[in-house]
């Protein structure tokens, strides 16, 4: 009843739609999707299932329509240098990165970078960043929780396959077998990613940013991840200078 009233339809009509006794119009479907915060990709599936044309496009980042968007994303990443910054799609595949992010990728074995670099995979794989992550238990836990939420919310088979893959990694399975640790007496503000790199140990926290008003499936599914130094020593290392 609350959903029907919020969407501007009668509870009886919504019940008929739910049970298949009524065919919803595009306007009703989109009103329901808006109230339920349904992703644009799924809204297109709703429309097709009801016999209507999809409403939202899905342009590639190389398409002419997105040239300005791609350029803006690259400027954002370049301005963030010397701190790592990258853009990923809904499956955690790397789309864009700045020089600092490329330097991190350079330490990965080639087979983990083909056919594309998947950030979730290279972060958790035993031959990837897992071997360099000093606080792997904490960092991997946050990434696995994030992936699990995405799988539950989207039902995406490709994300499900990615989750099945990473859960089979010995690094991840070792976490599942490890005894539960007592909560910290003084919890940190953020869970950092602490990496042992050739130039030294660096501790970073991240932010995830999405487009505010997307009307394209591709744009809605892009995320910008920016890494920031978590302490002065890490900032000095990332900037290529000796700690003061």
Set down the secondary structure blueprint.
Blueprint: H1 2-7, H2 11-19, H3 26-36, H4 40-49, H5 67-80, E1 85-88, E2 94-97, H6 99-105, H7 119-124, H8 136-154, H9 157-167, H10 170-177, E3 193-197, E4 200-209, H11 217-220, E5 223-229, H12 232-238
Antiparallel strand pairs: 1-2, 1-5, 3-4, 4-5
Uncertain residue ranges: none
CATH class of the largest domain: Alpha Beta
Give the class from helix and strand content and strand pairing: alpha+beta
Provide the CATH architecture of the largest domain. 2-Layer Sandwich
Q: What is the mean pLDDT?
A: 92
What fold name stands as the CATH topology of the largest domain? Answer: Beta-Lactamase
Task: Please give the radius of gyration in angstroms.
Answer: 22 Å
Number of structurally distinct domains: 2
Strand content: 5-15%
Largest sheet: 5 strands, antiparallel
Question: How many alpha or pi helices?
Answer: 12
Q: Looking at the structure, what is the overall shape?
A: globular
- Give, in order, the helices and strands: HHHHHEEHHHHHEEHEH
- Taking the alpha carbons of the first and last residues, their distance comes to 63 Å
Q: What spatial order of strands do you see in the largest sheet?
A: 2-1-5-4-3
State the helicity in percent bands.
40-55%
Report the strand count. Answer: 5
């Amino acid at each position: 009843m609350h959903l029907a009233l919020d969407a501007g339809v009668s509870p009886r009509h919504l019940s008929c739609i739910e049970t298949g006794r009524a065919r919803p119009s595009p306007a009703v479907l989109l009103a329901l999707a808006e109230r339920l915060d349904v992703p644009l990709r799924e809204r297109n599936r709703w429309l097709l299932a009801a016999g209507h044309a999809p409403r939202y496009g899905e342009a590639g980042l190389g398409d002419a329509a997105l040239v300005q968007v791609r350029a803006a994303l690259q400027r954002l990443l370049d301005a963030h240098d010397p701190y790592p910054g990258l853009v990923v799609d809904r499956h955690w595949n790397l789309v864009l990165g700045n020089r600092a992010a490329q330097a991190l990728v350079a330490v990965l074995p080639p087979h983990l970078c083909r056919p594309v670099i998947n950030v979730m995979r290279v972060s958790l794989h035993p031959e990837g960043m897992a071997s360099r992550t000093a606080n792997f238990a904490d960092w991997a836990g946050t990434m696995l929780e994030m992936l699990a939420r995405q799988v539950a919310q989207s039902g995406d088979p490709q994300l499900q396959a990615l989750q099945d893959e990473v859960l089979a990694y010995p690094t991840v399975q070792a976490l599942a077998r490890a005894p539960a640790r007592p909560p910290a007496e003084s919890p940190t503000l953020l869970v950092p990613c602490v990496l042992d790199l050739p130039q030294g140990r660096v501790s970073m926290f991240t932010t995830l940013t999405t487009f505010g008003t997307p009307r394209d499936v591709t744009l809605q599914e892009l995320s910008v991840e920016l890494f920031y130094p978590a302490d002065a020593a890490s900032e000095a290392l990332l900037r290529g200078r000796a700690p003061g």
